[in-house]
Design goal:
Shape: globular
Oligomer: single chain
Distance between the termini: 31 Å
Radius of gyration: 21 Å
CATH topology: TIM Barrel
CATH superfamily: Aldolase class I
Number of helices: 13
């Protein structure tokens, strides 16, 4: 048994003991408010709507701006870095994204078909509540979601008006977003009107970047409109590693993922594998050869090799030691490059990410970092989550 598996078993056991003790405590019920809290009510006493309300309250405390029944927008680290410090996201360097004009959107706040160990999404065992994570019981109108996503993004960015050091031109541009990353939390392909949503954004001149685990090939194959760029997130390289780390909540999770990868070459949009490097799990030779095999299967336009970040609910499942530094990520990227024949074309140390591609030049979706792959970043500049405790 690998050291990684042993650490996971011990971590899971400690969490089980904690929740067992927690459930033995007789918590008082709230008296002033009818809505539930994340405290100690017995799960059986909470109705489904109350559970979702409690989860939404937790999201709001974390800075999420809720939209309707199942969506949300949150300020990205790079939204602030762009406005306050004139530093930009790696997607600006790789794909021309304008960081101060990019909405970070979820259309599936609490639902997914996986229980990935590195994910920051709240799960039942994280909060002592139970809900059906695989079935999203809501289906808000796409136009409503798009209009309110733009509205909430403008509300978020409005705080930079008049702020010392704010570039007035950048502020005005921020009020007119040009990109949306449909990711953030949950599995976006559980929203049945995803294609309509993408089309609504495109009709407003907003490019779309859809991030998915690839577990719904049926949805991706039947989108009314493809996204500008399609991301498939990968941490596992075969069924055994997938079942261990990504923990599918539905049958045939790995097989469904492979179906998605097989059909990627049929997409007219650009396609990306985002391989999240988890130190001690998928940075070994077996994993690297497995990733190269998956790359040959899906033939993505780009491969991002990016560090796992020790944030959110993942802190209860993994350790800080599982978060690789940039040099470690680059070493893994070099090995994947050698195995897959995808050359390294760019990198971003602040984001701990390396880009592989067989393309001679990038397809750009905005005016961010005009020098593109060759843009120079400050070597000592802070990166994503560097201030995390």
């Amino acid at each position: 048994m690998s050291k990684f598996k042993i650490r996971i078993i011990l971590k899971t056991y400690k969490l089980f003991l904690f929740l067992t003790i927690l459930n033995l405590i007789n918590f008082p019920r709230p008296k002033k408010r009818g809505s539930p809290t994340m405290g100690g009510e017995k799960m059986a006493e909470l109705k489904t709507e109350e559970i979702y309300q409690a989860l939404n309250e937790r999201l709001e405390k974390q800075g999420y701006h809720l939209i309707g029944n199942h969506s949300s927008v949150k300020k990205c680290y790079w939204n602030h870095a762009a406005m306050a410090e004139h530093r930009f996201c790696y997607k600006s360097k790789f794909y021309g994204i304008e960081s101060h004009r990019c909405i970070q959107l979820s259309v599936s706040n609490h639902w997914c078909w996986n229980a990935c160990m590195h994910c920051w999404r709240l799960r039942p065992q994280d909060v002592g509540l139970e809900w059906n994570e695989t079935n999203m019981p809501y289906n808000d109108d796409p136009k409503f979601i798009v209009e309110n996503a733009i509205k909430e993004y403008r509300r978020i960015m409005s705080g930079y008006k008049g702020r010392k050091g704010t570039d007035l031109k950048m502020y005005q541009e921020a009020m007119n977003p040009k990109h949306v990353a449909i990711s953030l939390t949950g599995e976006a392909t559980l929203y049945p009107r995803l294609g309509e949503l993408i089309k609504e954004f495109h009709n407003r001149g907003i490019s779309t970047f859809l991030v998915t685990r690839g577990i719904r090939p049926d949805i991706l194959a039947n989108l009314d409109e493809e996204p500008s760029q399609l991301y498939i997130s990968l941490e596992a390289w075969d069924k055994e590693s997938y079942d261990l780390f990504n923990k599918p909540l539905v049958p045939r999770g790995w097989e469904l993922t492979l179906e998605t990868l097989e059909m990627l070459p049929s997409f007219s949009s650009t396609t990306v594998y985002r391989i999240t490097v988890v130190k001690g799990f998928n940075d070994n030779d077996e994993a690297i050869k497995g990733f190269a095999k998956l790359i040959r299967l899906g033939l993505p336009n780009y491969v991002e090799v990016k560090a796992y970040m020790y944030v959110g609910a993942s802190k209860g499942r993994l350790t800080r030691e599982n978060m690789p530094n940039y040099d470690e990520v680059k070493e893994v990227a070099k090995k994947i490059s050698n195995e897959s024949s995808y050359p390294i074309v760019s990198e971003s140390a602040p984001s701990r990410v390396v880009l592989l591609s067989k393309m001679e030049k990038p397809i750009r979706y905005g005016n961010g970092m005009p020098m593109g792959w060759n843009s120079i970043e400050e070597e000592e500049s802070p990166g994503e989550y560097d201030d995390e405790p």
